[in-house]
Amino acid sequence: MTERTPTEAARDIPEATVARLPVYLRALTSLAEAGTATCSSEELATAAGVNSAKLRKDLSHLGSYGTRGVGYDVEYLRYQIAREIGVTQDWPVVIVGIGNLGHALANFSGFRSRGFRVVALLDADPSRHAEQVAGVDVRPFSDLAAIVAEHGVAIGVISTPAHAAQDVADAMVSAGIRSILNFAPAVLSVPQGVDVRKVDLSIELQILAYHEQRKGPAGLDGRLEAPA
Amino acid sequence: MTERTPTEAARDIPEATVARLPVYLRALTSLAEAGTATCSSEELATAAGVNSAKLRKDLSHLGSYGTRGVGYDVEYLRYQIAREIGVTQDWPVVIVGIGNLGHALANFSGFRSRGFRVVALLDADPSRHAEQVAGVDVRPFSDLAAIVAEHGVAIGVISTPAHAAQDVADAMVSAGIRSILNFAPAVLSVPQGVDVRKVDLSIELQILAYHEQRKGPAGLDGRLEAPA
DNA sequence: TAGATTGTTAATCGATTAACAATC
DNA sequence: TAGATTGTTAATCGATTAACAATC
């Protein structure tokens, strides 16, 4: 299969491109809200924080949605990218682990506004089952399988302590979840076909610390030691 | 300068390697806590969730800290990596924006346990200045420059709404901060020499959604459609 | 010495970038 | 037609991986 039929033109998008599509989507939404009807690759790239060559290369994997000499129709491109990512549909999500971070995630407006609907909050601690967070009841962790089946949940978020994360992941996989966003500082082992993405706050800080250390003490002008 | 003197042997570590060093550090800490004195690249790689070739290649950029035929001394390697990252020293940090996420970050134990010390919590909203979060007073945003100068803060965390993020970043840069961890869904513009890392929850979910969409509806065995 | 495992080499793969032909 | 801007090409760069010589 070297040739593609038109309907499957938008396959096998490089991972690096996939990771940037949501950034482009957000930039296009901003432009649309600002009343911009058309933009060039240069403008969109600036809004997204990338260079225009990269943006055009990325978009070329989706199809040919621009007009040479003119640019891109903001609303049209926004829809095409949203469709490509899959956020034109609704994604039911469960969050397991309702501590400080779980609370913050449950209240995070950025989820709901982008097609992600938190259908359940789960916690193993019975003392939390009385609570309601962001208008959603906190329920026993043992309800996971039933909730996943009932709502067709495909995406699970883990915000438990590290020691509980693998058990939660196992239960999620058993229940049929195949995409996991993991905030626990633990390496998860999952079967092939299950995607895990990891968000690790202390790792991000450590990466910053590494570069900060190499900059040396701040001078009168901190920019003198700018990296290459 | 093509040759390196011994003392500068550990320079210019590739970015991809830098991003994995904290993962190795955590795995080594786990091994040490479990009482393991020595480990092979294979064992450490498994604990860190990478393959052993990548691990050895990564470590080779730091120096030669293993023993052929034997493996690595867990405690020694752990210290060498911690020193390389810079987490043997103490990093004072400020968090700006004490909403749900800011609360969670202030309470996050993973910071303090890794050499990051939250010296101040700032918020522009006066109604929050009465609060104490995780034992730290919430102070006016306008105190930023004084706090940075007083504590020698080099790292700033932004957990404000998107519309405030650029102003916060500008103020941080003016105050002398050169490393920013940004949780706000906004593209920040900063001068050369200032590092920004971005953590974006809804982008992570969207990347998962993209892959989930391509997997198609779950079958009797969700793993049948495993990607290559 | 024999077995084990590192550190390095070299091949491969994927991502970035600049330049420009195509085309509105 | 002339000017503008896309989509694509090709060169470059960096990251991954397997294999293995070095060496404990």
UniProtKB/TrEMBL annotation, chains A, B:
Residues 86-187 form the CoA-binding domain. Coiled coil: none annotated. GO terms for biological process: negative regulation of DNA-templated transcription; response to redox state. It holds the Pfam family Put_DNA-bind_N. Signal peptide: none annotated. The keyword Nucleotide-binding does not apply. SMART domains: CoA_binding. The keyword Nucleus does not apply. InterPro entries: CoA-bd (IPR003781), NAD(P)-bd_dom_sf (IPR036291), Rex_actinobacterial-type (IPR058236), Rex_DNA-bd_C_dom (IPR009718), Tscrpt_rep_Rex (IPR022876), WH-like_DNA-bd_sf (IPR036388), WH_DNA-bd_sf (IPR036390). PANTHER family: REDOX-SENSING TRANSCRIPTIONAL REPRESSOR REX, REDOX-SENSING TRANSCRIPTIONAL REPRESSOR REX 1. NCBIfam families: PRK05472.1-3 (NF003989), PRK05472.2-1 (NF003992), PRK05472.2-2 (NF003993), PRK05472.2-3 (NF003994), PRK05472.2-4 (NF003995), PRK05472.2-5 (NF003996). This is Unannotated protein. It comes from freshwater metagenome.
